[in-house]
Amino acid sequence: MLKLLAFCGVLTYVTSLTPSPYVDFNFGGSSESDFEDQLREQEFSEEKIDQLLEEFREGQKELEMDLEADEDDSTVSWAETRGYAECAFFKTPKYGYVEDKKLCSGCLKPKSMAEICAEFQCPFFGNSGIPPGANCGFMARQLLSANWAVTSIDAGDLEKGYEAAFWRLYKYLNGANTQGATLASSVYMVNKWLLGDHIGQIEGAQMAFFIPSPYQDSPPAPTDGQVAIEFWSPLNIYSRAFGGDRSGQRADVIKNQYRMLQRALGEGGVSPNKKMLMTFEFVKPGCGSQRSEVILADHA
Predict the structure, then answer these.
(1) How far is it, in rounded angstroms, from Cα 238 to Cα 295?
(2) Can you point out the beta strands (E) in 35-176?
């Protein structure tokens, strides 16, 4: 099955700092039969369905191995998995901090980007100009220039719009392009939310898949007019990471992480573009195979 650094056959959620969008989309369902039903509903060919179901089975085997490996990651520090040191002023109950290490380890520890990018092809990152360790509470990177497959998310009906956007990009990667090529078996995905002047107002939303090698330099054109290839210029991004499933509380957790990110950036003298919010998720069933990021960026 196509392994997305946002979806791995389980629920994925997207939320903004303000009330609204909270999208709950279960890609792949909870079983092979669920995934097959989704593929048939999307009118994939029988040949393609057989291929994707075989990849689904292989993915399930890999997942079992990942879950076993997660049980042995207790020696990896929180700072290493997050990618930054936490601020002392966040280490209070107000921000959900607990002193008992047994309550804040294991499942809640995010998977490190080093581990993720060793398994999947990540976008190209560079130095943001902020020295590592100069600040606390966020990771600073430069998202380097690259081609991305993008499509709009209908902000008028976020749930349906999000699902429709995902399937458009998924089909592009699986042959809905001028070369009829399958571009990748693993994909890095981000979402952009453009906010209006009023609290909770969303002016636009976009889903994007990073185009991996060997198609990065000259990606095939999409056959769906709602999918486009965009070249993104370098952009400094600032993120906070968290792990765990967080079922039933994810919207509140993400809102809190955005607030913490804004405070950490303010304390560090960084003034990002607060009209564009970004989210990234690496989600698998189980315990420590999780990583979510809330992201703010410089003004383009």
Answers:
(1) 6
(2) 125-126, 139-143, 146-152
* Contact (CB, 8 A) for 129 and 236: yes
Element (H, E) at 251: helix 250-267
Looking at residue 92, what DSSP letter applies? Answer: S
Which of 46-55, 91-100, 162-171, 222-231 is predicted most confidently? Answer: 222-231
Helix (H, G, I), strand (E, B) or coil at 33: helix
Which residue has tokens 């980007």? 113
Of 214 and 246, the structure prediction assigns the larger pLDDT to 214
CB 205, CB 158: distance < 8 Å: yes
Task: Kindly report the pTM of this predicted structure.
Answer: 0.84
Tell me the three state secondary structure of residue 229: strand
- Whether the CB-CB separation of 135 and 268 falls below 8 Å is answered with yes
How far is it, in rounded angstroms, from Cα 234 to Cα 243? Answer: 27
Contact 137, 79 (CB under 8 A): no
Listed as own residue / partner, the contacts of 101-107 with beta carbons closer than 8 Å and 24 or more positions apart are: 105/74, 105/78, 106/74, 106/287, 106/288, 107/243, 107/244, 107/245, 107/287, 107/288, 107/290
How, if at all, do strands 11-14 and 202-210 pair?
Answer: unpaired
